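fwd from M.: "can u put these together and see what the complex looks like"

so here's what she sent:
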Amino acid sequence: MWPERELVMFDLPSYLRGKQVWVNCGIGQVLTDMTYSGRLADAMRYAVTAGGKRIRPILCAASAEAVGNADESAVLTTACALELIHTYSLIHDDLPAMDDDALRRGKPTCHIAFDEATAILAGDALLTLAFQALSTFKTPSGTPAEKWLWVIRNIAEAVGAKGMVEGQMRDVASEGGTLTFEELESIHRLKTGALISASVTSGAALAQASPSQMACLKTYAQNIGMAFQVVDDILNVEGDKTVMGKAVGTDQARSKNTYPSRIGMAASKEKAKTLIGNALQALSGFDTRAEALRAIASYIIERKK
Amino acid sequence: MWPERELVMFDLPSYLRGKQVWVNCGIGQVLTDMTYSGRLADAMRYAVTAGGKRIRPILCAASAEAVGNADESAVLTTACALELIHTYSLIHDDLPAMDDDALRRGKPTCHIAFDEATAILAGDALLTLAFQALSTFKTPSGTPAEKWLWVIRNIAEAVGAKGMVEGQMRDVASEGGTLTFEELESIHRLKTGALISASVTSGAALAQASPSQMACLKTYAQNIGMAFQVVDDILNVEGDKTVMGKAVGTDQARSKNTYPSRIGMAASKEKAKTLIGNALQALSGFDTRAEALRAIASYIIERKK
C-alpha cells in the first residue's frame, strides 16, 4: 500500500502553509490577550514565532478533519495550546543545564537572545498559557465543558511526569551512557511520541471520534511519532545545516543514543519506512478526509529539516 | 475590630496541623498515581515534602468552609494543585539563573540536592501535574465540569504571564535597580498575591459562593496576600535563621527592593497591620465558619517564619 502514496493528488505544501497561517494567527491572538507587554512577553513571542513547522497543531487539525464535525475555533484553541507547549519544551531543552544549544530554527535560542532567567520563565509562562487557553474557551459553544476537561487531561498526561518531561529527564540522564534499544524507544515514546499522540487524539476528540476511530488514530500517531524521531536522528547525521537551521552532528559529538548509533543507518531508514507504512495502514478505514494525515505521514519521512 | 481578635477561641495550630496532614496525604496520592518512580519523581517528592506551611491549600479549604457546601474531595484536589504550583515556583525561583538560593525550608534546594536539569524538569512536571490533577477529577461528582474549567482558568491566570511568572520576571529584572513604591507593590501583587487570591477564590467557587461573598473573599485575599509579602520582607531583616530554616539578610545583600528598604521598618509593620485589619473587615458578613480565615489573617502578621 505504502509506495502507492505517490499517486494521490494532495497539495500538502499548500495545506501546510494554510494551516501555519491559521495557527500563527491564533497564537498571536492568545499572546496579545493573555500577556502584558514587556520582556517576558517579548521572549515568549520570540520563541513561539521562531519559524517552527507547526506539525503538532496541524496534526490536531488534520485529525479533527479526518473524523469531521469539529468546531473549528475549539480545534484552533487546542492547536495553539499544543504549539505553546511544544515551544516551552524547546526553550527548556535548549538551556545550558540541559542540551545547551545556542541555535534553534536558524536563530539564537531564547536564553541566548534574552538570558537564562527570562528563558526559564518564558517556558513556564508558555506552559501555563496553554492550560489557560484551553480553559478559557467560552461556553456555550459546540464543545461541552466535559470535552475540554478531557482535552486538558489528555494533553497534561502527555507532557508531564509520565510523558514528555520524563522523556527529557531520561534523555538527559542517559547522555554519555549506553542504552538498550528498549530504553531508547521508551525515551522517544515519552519525549516526542506522547505529545504527537495527544495532538492527534485531542483533535479527534473534539470531532467526536468513535472509540474505534480513536484507536486507529492513536496507532497512526504512535507510528508517525516514532518515525519522526527516527528521521530526526537520521537528519542529525546526514542533514544539511543550512537547510535545517540548526547544528548537525551534535548527537554524535555528545555520544547520544540514537537510532543510527544503536542499529545503524540502513536499519534506521528501514524502520522509518515500516513505521510510516503502519501509520498509513491504521488510516485504511478513513475516507478522503484523512488525506492530509496520509500526506503528513509521507512528508515526515521525506523531510529535509 | 482587629485588636479584639485575641479574644476569639480558635485553635489555629491544631487546625493548621490537621489541614497539613490532609493536604500532605492528598499530594502523596497524586504523586504516587501520576509519576513513575525514578529521579524525576524523587526530585518532585523531595521538593514538595520539604516542610512547607501549606498556606495556600489551607486558605483554599478554609475559604470553602467559610462559604459552606463544598465537596471535600474537590477541595482537596484543588488544594493539592495549588501546593504543587507553589512548589514548582520555589524550585525555579531558587535556580542559579534566578535567586540562586542553596537553602530552602532548612534543606538544600532542589538543584543542590539533585542537579540543575533535574530541578528545572521537576518544576515543569509539578506545574503540569497540577493541571492534570485538576482535570482528572472524576465526573459525576458534586462538582460539574464547568466549575472545574473555571478553577483551572482561575489558577492558570493567577500563575502565568499576567500573574506569578510576570511577577518573578519583574522581580529578577529589578534586582540592583530602584523601584517606585507602585512598581514594588505590583511585583508583590503578581508574584505572591495572585496565587493567594486564586487559592481563596477557587475554594469559594467550589463551595458555590455568591458574587458578593466572592467579592469579599477576594478583598480578604488581596489584603492578606500583600501582608504576607510585607511580613516576609520584615522577617528577611529581623527573622531568626534557625527558626526560618533559610538565610536572612539576603534581600539587603542583593539590594532587593523591599518594604523595609522603601518605606522603613516602622511603616512596614504599620502597613502589615492595616492590611490585616482590612482583611478581617472584609469577612464581617461571614459567620463563625470563617473563623479559620480570620485566625489565619492574624497568624500571618504574628508568624516567625
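replying to her w this: Chain B touches chain A through 52 residues (CB under 8 Å).
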